[in-house]
Specification:
Layout (H helix, E strand, L loop, with lengths): L2 E7 L5 H9 L8 E3 L5 E13 L2 E10 L1 H9 L2 H10 L12 H11 L17
InterPro entries: SchA_CurD-like
Protein name: SchA/CurD-like domain-containing protein
Organism: Streptomyces nymphaeiformis
């Protein structure tokens, strides 16, 4: 399963506030991701958020099409709420109020995967 990581440039010194914002995160309404035609395009398997100083990173484990995953996230009430609450803590504004803005920001914030290793990629020993 692939992972994606997106970054947020944040003001230092507000770690407690950010932890509170993500601590109250509402899960997506469904792990199933659909494309524009309503067909299955993937799943969101897990997410994690990491924070240090002025960098926050959200890691997403997913199956399927990453653009469809970003579009799905953009329409989720919990994701929209977190993005709204983060605005005062950002050093660089993020245009996430629309699906198109969210997807463009997602792509711009995406870290390049340089390595990914999982026990799921290795055949089970007999």
């Amino acid at each position: 399963m692939p992972f994606a990581a997106i970054t947020y440039d944040i003001k230092p010194g507000c770690e407690a506030e950010l932890a509170e914002i993500f601590g109250g995160f509402r899960r997506v309404t469904s792990d199933r991701v659909r494309d524009a035609g309503g067909q299955d395009a993937g799943r969101i398997l897990a997410t994690a958020v990491f924070l240090r100083d002025d960098t926050l990173v959200r890691v997403i484990e997913y199956e399927g099409d990453l653009d469809a995953v970003a579009r799905h996230m953009a329409s989720q009430p919990g994701v929209r709420e977190v993005e709204r609450k983060l605005k005062p803590y950002l050093t660089r504004p993020r245009d996430t109020d629309t699906v198109e803005g969210f997807v463009a920001t997602f792509r711009r914030s995406l870290l390049r995967t340089v390595a990914q290793i999982s026990v799921r990629d290795v055949p089970a020993a007999s």
